Amino acid sequence: EDEQIVAEIMGRRFFPDHITHKTWEGFHFAGHEIRITEATDCYGAVVWPSALVLCYFLETNSKQCNLVDKNVIEIGAGTGLVSIVASLLGAFVTATDLPELLGNLQHNVLRNTKQKCKHQPCVKELSWGIDLEKNFPRSSCHFDYIMAADVVYHHPFLDELLLTFDHLCKNDTVILWAMKFRLEKENRFVDRFQVLFDLEMISNFPSLNITLYKAMRKGRMKA
Q: What is the Cα gyration radius of the chain?
């Protein structure tokens, strides 16, 4: 079953049939052909399998997870694939990442959503743990969903990432987080995450070493 679903997920990806001057990959989600420009010399400008897993879930669970008119933020949006799919499914999306990635992110988001979405998504800088209250004040920022794909890997900002989740998450916010398990240090982040949030495994794909989680602030999952 794992291999069958993984094959279907990966089957959503297609590649250019001729050489182009820009590196790009194509994807089929939410009834659209999505073309993503990439940069192979930067982690944040490549589409990782966790993003495909999350996009597949959003599309195939659109009734259970209805994004129409919902306020969604993606942290570590990278190339913007998840944000684009959420937008095509009717959400008002804020796609965020580091300043050096915003140009490519904006290009991909605009190219794939213009005149195709109910709400035009916006792209905004978010450096984890920095100026959170200034840029995303708790009093005025309310997100129905926080989405994250492959944000936990070998980087020195895991504390700041947890702080960012904590700042953006209200009592009724749902976190959808796809994680590829790699090294023990990064894997321990899951234990730290569960101090603040109730965590539920939605899907597990051993062949990809990826797990998709749903989370809410501690004590709120059942409520």
A: 16
